Amino acid sequence: MDRNVVIGLGSVVAMPLLGNLSDHYGRKVLLTFPMTLSIFPLAILAYSRTKYYFYAYYILRTLISVICDGSIPCLALAYVADNVPEGKRAAVFGILSGVTSSAFVCGNLSARFLSTSATFQVAAGGSVVALVYMRAFLPESIRNRGVPAEATETDCLLEKAPSKKLQIFKKLPSFDDTICLLRTSPTFSQAAIATFFCDVSEIGLHASLLYYLKAQFQFNKDQFADLMIIGGAASSISLLVLMPLLAPLLGEQKLLSIGLFFGCAHMFLHSIAWASWVPYAAAMMSVVATFTMPCLKSIASKQISPCEQGKAQGCLTGISSLASIVSPLIFSPLTAMFLSDNPPFYFPGFSIMCAGFAGLIAFIQSIKLKDAESVADSMSSSSDNLDP
């Protein structure tokens, strides 16, 4: 838990910073940084898995995660927002999440057929291939967007010279900048609140579920892995097939509420599971529950100007990191209390039900979300009003 707290605290600070820097220096440049660093811990275990190499892996992985945990999905979403029109953004965000979920399923399946040494070698090789592919084939998305990556030609040379050393520090976001961003739009701040409670709920479920299933139904690690694979496969199919079809028809706000509702139902069903097959049935509800985060990210991106998409996604990822600190501190002791020999009252799934109530807060918040005019639409309408 201490490691997760350290990583979460680092990510709360680092994610808005990396997102803001990507608005100025480009998504591709900032993506290179975490993708390169993520290779080294895997390479250590691919080389050797003796005690001291494992210690080196653990320390290096923790330090890198403090800076880079969650940065690749964050910057990838900002990149997609740069290149996809608002009307298609929810569907494409869903496809991106579906690809991530598919990779999770493939990784779990391949680990069952590979030896331990081969697993880390394949993982390190895959990370290298991803980095090379990104550098070779991914075009920069903000080069021609007018983003202030460099000083404009109208800047006075005398003003530019003394401030050049401090230029990067002016671009670093402060806490006040984050608060200002949350105040930019009521819809964005509501999406941020929903993101926090949704992540508290999801992380609380994962912090409790393994111990609950082991205590109640004697699940072993293989059965739990099967459960994750079933949920991941269902999520992949849903995000890759269903969401691109439903997002244009229903809109992301209705789809968000539907996803949160089924996410809560999924947790409540886990909490009262009466037989060993119930968790498998509950896992199938993730077919709909996985709509939540792509919809939230799409709604938030439409409330922020095109030149601040990195800052917006970094802010939401930082909020998710804050939830990753808060949630285990609440749900891990709660799970231990109700699975102990002397619980306050008999309800082994009480902590999972509490996680469901946290998701219910996010669901109520999603209902309050109103159809808000996006920044692009408001800029277009204001320019139309200025035309004679």
Describe the structure.
- With 388 residues, the protein is mainly α.
- The chain has a single domain (2-142, 176-370), classed as Up-down Bundle (Growth Hormone, Chain: A).
- Helix content is 79%, strand content 0%.
- It is built from 19 helices and no strands.
- The protein has helices at 2-25, 27-37, 39-47, 51-68, 71-83, 86-113, 116-137, 157-163, 167-170, 175-183, 186-217, 221-250, 252-271, 278-283, 286-289, 292-301, 309-338, 350-368, 375-386.
- Helix 1 packs antiparallel against helix 17 and helix 13 (252-271) runs antiparallel to helix 16.
- Mean pLDDT is 83; it is low at 144-166 and 378-386.
CATH class categorisation: Mainly Alpha
Radius of gyration: 22 Å
The stretches of 5 or more residues where confidence is low (pLDDT under 50) are 144-166, 378-386
- The rough form would be described as globular
Distance between the termini: 62 Å
Q: What is the helical fraction, as a range of percent?
A: over 70%
Strand pairing plus helix content: what structural class? mainly alpha
CATH superfamily, called what? MFS general substrate transporter like domains
Number of helices: 19
What is the architecture at the second tier of CATH? Up-down Bundle
What is the count of structural domains? 1
CATH topology: Growth Hormone, Chain: A
Helix and strand element order: HHHHHHHHHHHHHHHHHHH
Note the main sheet. none
Overall pLDDT confidence: 83
Strand content: under 5%
How many strands?
0
